[in-house]
Design brief:
elongated; 435 residues; alpha+beta; disordered C terminus
């Protein structure tokens, strides 16, 4: 019953922090109209020299010159053939006949009747749609109903992020508070939707929530001790120009909280399930024995997950890391600079919260499992030694032929051991049901 008050408190906090009054105004300006089109012809030619460069010197962009004919597929000019220059510059798309692209029409401010067409980027809707279909089909094919529930949980997570967390931070609410409430709301919805309303899920919820709170406290202390401002990335600087009232330091803390949630879910659910399986495999284990055995599994999980966290941040920051290799400053100055120190603090705090989740969730699961087992079989002696099956019978069961083949003799029937009624679970017992 501990989870119910926490869920009610989370819902009330979300209602109090829910953004109202629409999205805040930004200085981003009006968007340029964009229209889909299909490339019908590409003509390339040598680039003329720039006025300040000698003849034969390629232009600064280094790309090809020429024109591209594109058929506009939608909008006021649908069906019309327009001509654009070959895209050039860093990150410019490379086009060929048949490519589906996005066109922008730029109007000359001095002469509104004159407009120029340019290719902005490729259309990516169709391949991304197919990728999403394959992604969903693979999850459902492997996980079946559980996979379908996981997809529903994923949709719920994005819905909470897009309707509560991001609008709440954009409306000027405390990013840390919004992130904690939003992460707790995502946790309740996703875990119970994916794993069912069971005691095992409730243990994972409590372990995740406790670890999230600890992560938030550690993140606050670490960012204050290292004097991080939140301006450690170009995206944050750009955001500050469009929305000056956003607390970037709080936004950094919010990112650590939300980024830690996904890994915490994995660890807490795994630890709760491990304790359940151990208790079902050997009902004679005490709480301390369950805790020690499941913690050994948690140590192995943490050892691999820590590497996962660091590599995930490194993979997302490869351009930054590559830029650092060309930096002439001493390594100490590079590591303590704002943009790199921010990533180090993020990884370290997330890892500390992850480590704390193992003993917390394992201890809760051991207490709940032992209590549920004692309630179910009050006359059982929990301290009794685990019954040992007869070794000869086990060997006979392993070497006896399988039944069902006409060319094989009838298998030897092994009488059930004397411990058949000792409370051991059946081999086909599933831990997906409620504890």
């Amino acid at each position: 019953m501990t989870v119910v008050p926490l869920f009610v408190a989370t819902v009330l906090a979300a209602l109090l922090l829910w953004p109202r009054g629409g999205s805040p105004e930004t200085d981003g300006g009006a968007g340029v109209p964009r229209f889909p089109g299909t490339v019908t012809r590409v003509v390339t030619e040598p680039c003329p020299p720039t006025p300040s460069s000698p003849e034969g010197t390629p232009r600064v962009g280094g790309g090809p010159c020429g024109t591209v004919d594109v058929r506009v597929d939608d909008g006021p000019s649908a069906g019309q053939q327009v001509q654009t220059p070959v895209p050039d510059g860093p990150g410019a798309p490379r086009v060929a006949v048949g490519d589906e692209v996005i066109l922008v029409e730029l109007t000359d401010p001095t002469d509104p009747t004159t407009s120029n067409w340019n290719i902005a980027e490729h259309q990516r809707g169709t391949p991304m749609l197919w990728l999403a279909v394959v992604f969903a089909a693979a999850i459902v094919a492997f996980g079946r109903w559980r996979g379908l529930a996981a997809l529903a949980g994923l949709a719920a997570s994005f819905a909470i992020l897009l309707t509560f967390v991001l609008p709440g931070i954009g409306a000027g609410k405390s990013p840390l508070l919004v992130a904690v409430v939003g992460a707790a709301l995502i946790m309740f919805v996703v875990l119970y939707l994916t794993h069912g309303v069971t005691a095992q899920t409730s243990v994972a919820v409590l372990g995740t929530l406790g670890s999230l709170v600890l992560t938030g406290v550690l993140a606050t202390i670490a960012t204050a001790a290292t004097h991080l401002t939140g301006f450690g990335s170009e995206d944050a600087t750009t955001l500050s120009m469009f929305q000056g009232d956003v607390d970037l330091h709080g936004l950094l803390l919010a990112g650590i909280i939300i980024g830690s949630l996904g890994v915490l879910d994995d660890v807490t659910v795994t630890q709760a399930a491990t304790v359940t399986e151990l208790a079902h495999a050997n009902p004679g284990l005490t709480r301390l024995q369950l805790y020690r055995a499941a913690t050994r599994v948690g140590r192995a999980h943490i050892a691999s997950t820590v590497n996962t966290i660091v590599l995930a941040y490194a993979g997302a920051s490869l351009p930054l890391l590559l830029l650092l290799t060309a930096d002439a400053r001493p390594i100490g100055q590079i590591l303590t600079s704002e943009f790199l120190a921010q990533e180090i603090v993020r990884s370290a705090v997330a890892t500390l919260g992850l480590i704390a989740a193992v003993p917390l969730t394992t201890g809760l699961a051991a207490v709940v499992t032992a209590a549920g087992r004692a309630d179910a079989t009050p006359s059982a002696d929990a301290s009794a030694p685990r019954p040992q099956p007869d070794r000869a019978e086990a060997l006979a069961a392993l070497i006896s032929p399988r039944a069902g083949r006409p060319d094989e003799p009838e298998p030897t029937r092994i009488p059930p051991p004397s411990t058949a009624t000792d409370g051991w679970p059946k081999s086909n017992r599933s831990t997906d049901t409620a504890w």
